[in-house]
Amino acid sequence: MTNETQMANAIRALAMDAVQAANSGHPGAPMGLADVATVLFNRFMKIDPTADKWADRDRFVMSAGHGSMLVYAINHLLGYDDMDMNQIRNFRQMGFRTAGHPEYGHAKGIETTTGPLGQGISTAVGMALAERMQNARFGDDLVDHYTYVIAGDGCLMEGISHEAIDFAGNMGLGRLIVMWDDNSITIDGKTDLSTSTDQPKRFEAAGWHVQSVDGHDKDAIAAAIEAARKVSDKPSMIACKTIIGYGAPNKQGTSATHGAPLGDDEIALTREALGWPHAPFEIPPKVYDDWHAIAARGKAARLDWDKRLSASGKADEFNATLAGPDKAALDAAINAYKHRLSQDAPKVATRKASQMALEVINATLPNTVGGSADLTGSNLTKTEGMEPVSKGNYGGSYIYYGVREHGMAAAMNGLSLHGGFLPYGGTFLAFADYCRGAIRLSALMGLPVPYVMTHDSIGLGEDGPTHQPVETVASLRAMPNTNVFRPADVVETAEAWQIAIESESTPSVLALSRQGLPCLRTSHTDTNMVAKGAYVLRDTAGERDVTLIATGSEVEIAMKAADQLAAEGIRAAVVSAPCFELFAEQDADYRAEVLGTAPRVGVEAAIEQSWGKLLGDNSAFVGMTGFGASAPADELYEHFGITADAVAKAAKNLL
Amino acid sequence: MTNETQMANAIRALAMDAVQAANSGHPGAPMGLADVATVLFNRFMKIDPTADKWADRDRFVMSAGHGSMLVYAINHLLGYDDMDMNQIRNFRQMGFRTAGHPEYGHAKGIETTTGPLGQGISTAVGMALAERMQNARFGDDLVDHYTYVIAGDGCLMEGISHEAIDFAGNMGLGRLIVMWDDNSITIDGKTDLSTSTDQPKRFEAAGWHVQSVDGHDKDAIAAAIEAARKVSDKPSMIACKTIIGYGAPNKQGTSATHGAPLGDDEIALTREALGWPHAPFEIPPKVYDDWHAIAARGKAARLDWDKRLSASGKADEFNATLAGPDKAALDAAINAYKHRLSQDAPKVATRKASQMALEVINATLPNTVGGSADLTGSNLTKTEGMEPVSKGNYGGSYIYYGVREHGMAAAMNGLSLHGGFLPYGGTFLAFADYCRGAIRLSALMGLPVPYVMTHDSIGLGEDGPTHQPVETVASLRAMPNTNVFRPADVVETAEAWQIAIESESTPSVLALSRQGLPCLRTSHTDTNMVAKGAYVLRDTAGERDVTLIATGSEVEIAMKAADQLAAEGIRAAVVSAPCFELFAEQDADYRAEVLGTAPRVGVEAAIEQSWGKLLGDNSAFVGMTGFGASAPADELYEHFGITADAVAKAAKNLL
Prior knowledge:
The structure is a homodimer.
Chain A: H1 4-22, H2 28-43, E1 59-62, H3 68-78, H4 85-89, H5 119-138, E2 147-151, H6 153-157, H7 159-171, E3 176-182, E4 185-186, E5 189-190, H8 199-205, E6 209-214, H9 218-230, E7 236-241, H10 264-274, H11 285-312, H12 315-322, H13 327-344, E8 348-349, H14 350-364, E9 368-372, H15 376-379, E10 398-400, H16 405-418, E11 422-423, E12 425-428, H17 432-445, E13 450-454, H18 472-477, E14 483-485, H19 490-502, E15 508-512, E16 516-517, E17 535-538, E18 546-550, H20 554-567, E19 572-576, H21 580-584, H22 588-595, E20 600-603, E21 619-622, H23 633-639, H24 644-654
Parallel strand pairs in A: 1-2, 2-3, 3-7, 6-7, 9-10, 9-11, 12-13, 13-15, 14-15, 18-19, 18-20, 20-21
Antiparallel strand pairs in A: 4-5, 8-16, 17-19
Helix pairs in contact in A: 1-2, 1-3, 1-10, 1-11, 2-3, 2-9, 5-7, 5-16, 7-16, 13-14, 13-19, 14-19, 16-17, 20-24
Binding site for substrate (chains A, B): 26, 258, 351, 378, 455, 463, 467, 514
GO molecular function, one term (chains A, B): metal ion binding
Cofactor (chains A, B): Ca(2+); Mg(2+); Co(2+); thiamine diphosphate
């Protein structure tokens, strides 16, 4: 018979001791949640620590990421082979897997990076949606898992939680079970300092199944989880009334346990209070045995599942969806498409070009999942034959995310982490600001999510400065491990999409125009030129007098300026620079060849900030210096002086 | 007797005709909301178009900012002198006040910029809070106004609305009345595509008073507003069931009316259906008369109020709070404080230095309002004697915003727009991403809100990469009209605060260290050196061999590197560059003098992107190239090579 009290106390002891050793960290949440987590894992979780990527495992997301020691303690006790006691002893230290917040990819059994509050629950919504969508495609025998989340007060105060909860309710994600750590404490003190929201009522309003339990009553917790699992048409929230820092006689129930070590004295008293006489980082064999039994049960389930997969006749298809895109097929399809484009040379907005590329991609790959934050007709993210995903109808491949940019981005992270799908989603580029928190996690986790961001400059016209990105491209280029594409025409857009889809560990932002742009790449190349980041689009006959470097809709302007300059006998090369990040990765020779030694003029309908590395001391920039305005697009370009005349003039000033 | 039906039809006609003339815009919302808005203005609003900044006016916020023509039509009909028919005819055109979305400062009677959904309702929460706080200070005779909001489905789907609604409920803002335009339509189609939330129940869960009415039944609307005004301890939400595009016989009730002109044929049919035979942009005198009566009533109320203010004995004090900070007093206090600092030379984290500066500022100025998004003890935003603001107790000056960065930023915009207060608020710098949408509106509207953003680099240590800003400073420097300060020591922090508080139309971000930093400015200057943006902190005896430019916590490292170089006979000047934006505003001679002609090394524990203008071709940069890690701060600086040794080496490589 397992002793769940001691199983839970093992979590508490490891948490308080590791935080004390690090002299930094958050003991309160793991100690308060130890009973909830023990019951969840001991009686329900289906995981196999020897096969941490098993597709049909239950997902566990610690949304309150500062409680990372809960995750590390559990994963150590379960016997994950990369989480030995040395990792626990070196919590928050350089070179160890036990980072201050759980980092995806640092250790097995961490399903997503959490820490920025609200991201975990919102990412889990994407995982739970992926489960239903995968189930719709492969059936109950192969896809039958739950997504469990522990969320704190902070997670539920953050705005992103609203977007996620409403979306999950509307989608009827019955396999999503959120346990709210209702401990009435935040950093600043008691929660009633800043909130008086009736959370159960709030979740009910969003269409959730809701229960409330004593978070230290193990049978009550188990009964609630059991009941939640039985509700198949609604996500479930279980309000678990807990005592933060449970077991610490003088500090439990106060914000003093939230984010600081308990101190040696209080830890000694806690050991006594809990009946846990063991030395720090010492776990009795019986406790290990009880936790290992969970792992053994999971392994047996996984072996059964392996047999079912083999017998299903769908193994190849199932595994293919997990393996990422078929690059050979995609390459052939994109190249055939580029051939046609170079001949037809259509003048289209790059948002339309994006849709055209997606028609090719979605026809080639079976598991792309499109969507938009209520701008489907503007972002042009939906292609022929895509059926919406909705409650009870998970066989579709297009998601109406609603006016929820942040929730969409987090859900896409969840879809990507879950595996089996290639999500992409759209909004206006200006509203990248609304989902930046989740884009940053795409980048930090290395998830290859493409963000379709249209209306990418003052070129959107009359909607005015709130909707006109001027600093947004720079702000996204600033983000590590993020490829920002600003394609100039229909061909570059196809190439950017190919890179975005084939990416293995880098998210992509496609900044796309509202306005029509001529096809500039009228000679077909099999080579993906966008993959070079920047390249000479128009070369000069003799030595260059000046190099004009532009992106997106401004490449057309640079080409016209080059014509004007040519008429005056000035040899201007034009470099299209659709992706600064990929250009920075090219070798020095190539970069030097593209940029040349002549003076340079940069052209982008945005601020200059990100251009430092492309321009040098002898250079000029034609772009924006402040916010935009509300007027027709052509007038705005004139008004802000982003014209071929201005580029030509700037070039001549450098000669 | 007023004819409210025709008053409302005037709004509808102006909206559909202006959108048609612009061939761009959103007729659906103004047409659907015309009855609600007419009743609100005709029976309740207290405004004087001849005194648009009257302190005790009711505030009206059109949160669904795409329905801007509702605002312009009303303000035209009321007789605002800057909103003649020529403005309406030139909706969305260059040089006119009638921008695509309502832009604060472009025309009278626009209380805040809206368009990015959810911002209006969240900013209004700040306005309503300011009203109660001002009332607590000056009494019912002088402060007795309401804040009315019209919010759409999109506003209520956005995460920020959750933060604002919960906060308003907890604060018990009885003077806040939100009318929800419940038209069941979003851009993508019917709202049930993406949401099934029971909004009334959701608002009730957050502690609001809730009613539901037919949004075309004028007496029912009036009764609901009347009832809402009578509830003094809870904010009110009135769900107004409306028909989008009301009056357009073939298009009303569909997303076709949302964001596109109705077309000439449908407009003709709408005229017929509404009984509005007048030509485009023609308003019958009786309708003007009815609207002008609202203005006259408001003017009379304002004249009465003027008398009460004069008689109150508080006029000077009241007006002083509206006039901005007392710069002379502040300057004297800050200089006395700087004198002490230069002598004492305390080594403190700049977050602590910020608190020390705030002690001086809050003791000098009566109307600063501090706060933090649940990080009071980390951001150090609370000073001696600050009492919390809470429901029914609005006399305090410190706000526990909860874990709601976006809601906090929007509320600060509202506090600033309302007048009478100087709000500032804190969070971790990494979570600037969570409130960027509202920071952008601070910048676009020119609101001098200071953002206190601590834990500004890998120097925060063990919390790891989710909490370590590496791209955040660059991403904020990218934003137009935003001063980003990264002070190096306790003196620079005081100077940065003085600029932030005295700013009239630019928000400030103070990026502050977690870790202690030595005092580098040990010789007192009355001159505010931070106001120059960058300055020579350590000069060389002879000609410079190299210039080291650093910000914030890295100035100390640059100083050590200069010592090392000096020991090797290399003359290195050190430039402290706490504010790139202010440096860019200096004249060319000063900038050239500071930067010098020697090779340059930039040092910042962040990515290089924003350094383009400070470094030249012959330069190097010592900083971050990707995300951080979880470990003690000192080890991280070593690990990422941001050390005096590395700076000295980089300098020597350039010689």
